[in-house]
């Protein structure tokens, strides 16, 4: 897999990982009961139930969450922009600090998605509204871009967008969350020698595995890795993702990797249920 990324001189200073995200609606977004914990708590099996976690959480199931889960005033910090980059114009939503951000989080959608998915306040149980608020309220920046494909061109566009904002926030660690097929971009970005020093973590949400990660600059730098997966995912079988998680632990004992299995959950469940604050704060801590 070719290295596609060059972030230049902005990478001379390592990112600052000396803070944690303040609470925001933590009780509402906390994980349901844990059915099983393995590997010292790095592998969790969560009791996911559609009746409670969709029908009880949404006013209109899968379309509109109950109002207590969201704080829509964050829209005042949301902009629909086009970044002029070396890869061309990259349309994206940006929420929070466009310069001097303390932390940068980007969400890369899956097949059939768009930049609008990552800023929809009302779907996926309000979880996108939560990450927007966590970034905006903590001096961070949240990005949800469009990109041409899940291959080299899309990777170049995302890389250029990250370079655009990383130059404006040289101390900010970058966290990349990839939903479903968006994982193809996560794995490509992990291969970048230039980007790896800035990475604070990678989040694979209902996505797939890539054995080449074990030879990547991100792996060598021990970039924290999170897997969220539905126990009944019919697109990417959970057993194969769990096998990859175990392969990482065997290849590098003590590697900062976590797996959350939402028992009974489907392909999109991790996007709805992943606890952004708990996961990002763990990554911030693991990266110190």
What does this structure look like?
Helices cover 27% and strands 24% of the residues. Strand 3 (58-60) and strand 4 form a beta hairpin. The longest helix has 15 residues, at 152-166. A 10-stranded mixed sheet has the order 1-2-12-11-10-9-7-8-6-5, sandwiched between helices. A two-stranded antiparallel ribbon has the order 3-4. With 288 residues, it is of the alpha/beta class. Residues 1-14 have low confidence and may be disordered. It is built from 9 helices and 12 strands.
Features of the shown structure:
288 residues, alpha/beta, two-stranded antiparallel sheet, 27% helix, globular
Give the percentage of residues in beta strands. Answer: 15-25%
Number of strands: 12
Large-scale geometry:
globular
Strand arrangement in the largest pleated sheet: 1-2-12-11-10-9-7-8-6-5
Quickly give the structural class.
alpha/beta
Rg, please?
17 Å
Kindly state the mean pLDDT as a whole number? 94
Helical percentage: 25-40%
Write down the oligomeric state: single chain
Number of helices: 9
Biggest sheet details: 10 strands, mixed
- Compressed to H and E, one letter per element, the order equals HEEHEEEEEHEHEHEHEHEHH
Terminal residue distance? 29 Å
Which runs of at least 5 residues are low in confidence (pLDDT < 50)? 1-14
């Amino acid at each position: 897999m070719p290295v596609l990324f060059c972030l230049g001189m902005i990478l001379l200073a390592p990112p600052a990982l000396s803070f944690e995200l303040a609470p925001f609606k933590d009780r509402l977004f906390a994980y349901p009961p844990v059915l099983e914990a393995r590997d010292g708590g790095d592998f969790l099996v969560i009791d996911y139930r559609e009746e409670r976690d969709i029908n009880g959480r949404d006013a209109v199931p899968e379309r509109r969450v109950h109002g207590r889960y969201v704080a829509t005033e964050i829209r005042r910090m949301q902009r629909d922009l086009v970044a002029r980059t070396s890869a061309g114009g990259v349309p994206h939503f940006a929420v929070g600090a466009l310069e001097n951000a303390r932390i940068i989080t980007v969400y890369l959608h899956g097949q059939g998605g768009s930049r609008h998915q990552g800023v929809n306040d009302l779907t996926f149980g309000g979880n996108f509204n939560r990450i927007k608020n966590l970034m905006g309220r903590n001096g961070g920046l949240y990005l949800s871009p469009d990109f041409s494909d899940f291959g080299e061109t899309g990777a170049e566009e995302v890389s250029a967008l990250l370079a655009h904002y990383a130059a404006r926030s040289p101390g900010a660690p970058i966290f990349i969350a990839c939903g479903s097929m968006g994982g193809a971009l996560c794995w490509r970005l992990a291969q970048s020698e230039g980007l790896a020093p800035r990475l604070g973590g990678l989040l694979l949400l209902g996505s797939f595995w890539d054995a080449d990660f074990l030879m990547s600059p991100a792996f060598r730098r021990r970039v924290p890795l999170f897997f969220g997966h539905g126990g009944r995912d019919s697109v990417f079988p959970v057993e194969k993702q769990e096998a990859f998680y175990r392969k990482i632990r065997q290849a590098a004992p003590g590697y900062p990797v976590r797996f959350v299995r939402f028992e009974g959950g489907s392909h999109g469940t991790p996007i709805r249920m992943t606890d952004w604050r708990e996961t990002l704060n763990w990554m911030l801590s693991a990266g110190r």
